[in-house]
């Protein structure tokens, strides 16, 4: 099973490393202008498909360029996994859906629900320990990613939503960015966006994100899932155990490689008591959670493209996440409630 990679930027290298570790072969890289890459390079998607016979494409390009790559893949009859968000604004999102929504060839590269911690939390919530989930609070990642995590933990399908958002600005030191350690020693103004997303039927999301929070380690990542019979706060669980009984417990991560554990440095399992919620498919790799999630998504896409697995993250899901993200931005800028009432992917 082989695929083509379109683009050679920051995320492209993550896909390449995932391919090397999972055995899903990258057959070539498509770029606008020739440049050194670790795989054969092409300047045309059509030529690359003809030369390699790739079974699917990973469109690792920005939101402005992604729709054209997606359309070209659908026209060629090849599956495509496109980065998030799948388009740069609501109108382009709807136009993309109008062109390719009827196809079953388009998936979205939303890796966050596949993080070991999130996958374990969702498995625990699905067990019913906190009853029916009613609210997910996300303070870790931005816009469409946060929307995906909210819907994932609540089990909410694409549909109507109302977003109310505000912003505040306060000083914050930014010691680390995507480019690495900044050397900064003084705080600078940073904007925090708060939003409440009404997902109907008594379910809601709470969004809390500060500029650069994804990489600023001075901000703690938080995910809370509230249910009818308890609450999950990160790894901590509080739940109803019967009349006059409240139970507390934790999700525990088994991390190999500490102290005299010489079995290699890797996350092995996440478990709740005797119940294993997540097990590492690649325990021999010293991978971060993001690398594990990216690898899992790539492997799932390969199975789907080969007709052996379900859709990893269909376009309708990615469109909904993006639409909620755009609504958060619009609501924060205008101060008014933004309602999603009739989107074509529902």
UniProtKB/TrEMBL annotation:
What is the official name of this protein in its record? Gfo/Idh/MocA family oxidoreductase
Q: Which domain of life is it from?
A: Bacteria
Provenance organism: Propioniciclava soli
SUPFAM superfamilies on file: Glyceraldehyde-3-phosphate dehydrogenase-like, C-terminal domain (SSF55347), NAD(P)-binding Rossmann-fold domains (SSF51735)
């Amino acid at each position: 099973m082989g695929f083509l990679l379109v683009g050679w930027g920051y995320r492209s290298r993550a896909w390449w490393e995932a391919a090397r570790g999972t055995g899903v072969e990258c057959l070539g890289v498509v770029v606008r202008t020739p440049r050194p890459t670790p795989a054969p390079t092409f300047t045309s998607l059509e030529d690359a498909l003809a030369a390699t016979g790739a079974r699917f494409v990973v469109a690792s390009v920005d939101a402005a360029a992604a729709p054209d790559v997606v359309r070209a893949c659908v026209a060629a009859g090849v599956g495509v996994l496109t980065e998030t968000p799948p388009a740069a604004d609501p109108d382009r999102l709807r136009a993309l859906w109008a062109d390719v929504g009827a196809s079953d060839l388009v998936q979205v590269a939303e890796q966050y629900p596949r993080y070991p911690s999130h996958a374990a939390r969702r498995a625990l919530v699905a067990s019913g320990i906190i009853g029916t989930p009613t609210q997910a609070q996300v303070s870790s990642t931005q816009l469409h990613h946060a929307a995906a995590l909210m819907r994932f933990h609540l089990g909410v399908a694409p549909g109507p939503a109302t977003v109310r958002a505000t912003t505040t600005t306060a000083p914050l030191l930014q010691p680390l960015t995507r480019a690495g350690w900044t050397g900064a020693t003084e705080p600078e103004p940073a904007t925090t966006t708060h939003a409440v997303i009404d997902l109907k039927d008594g379910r809601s999301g709470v969004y809390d994100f500060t500029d650069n929070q994804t990489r600023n380690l001075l901000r703690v990542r938080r995910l809370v899932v509230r249910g009818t019979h308890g609450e999950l706060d990160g790894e901590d669980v509080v739940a109803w155990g019967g009349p006059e009984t409240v139970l507390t417990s934790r999700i525990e991560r088994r991390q190999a490689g500490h102290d005299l554990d010489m079995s290699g440095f890797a996350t092995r399992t996440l478990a709740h008591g005797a119940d294993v919620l997540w097990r590492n498919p690649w325990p021999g790799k010293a991978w971060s959670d993001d690398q594990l999630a990216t690898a899992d998504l790539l492997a799932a896409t390969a199975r789907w493209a080969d007709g052996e697995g379900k859709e990893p993250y269909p376009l309708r899901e990615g469109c909904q996440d993006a639409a909620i993200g755009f609504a958060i931005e619009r609501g924060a800028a205008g101060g008014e409630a933004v309602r999603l009432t009739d989107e074509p992917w529902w």
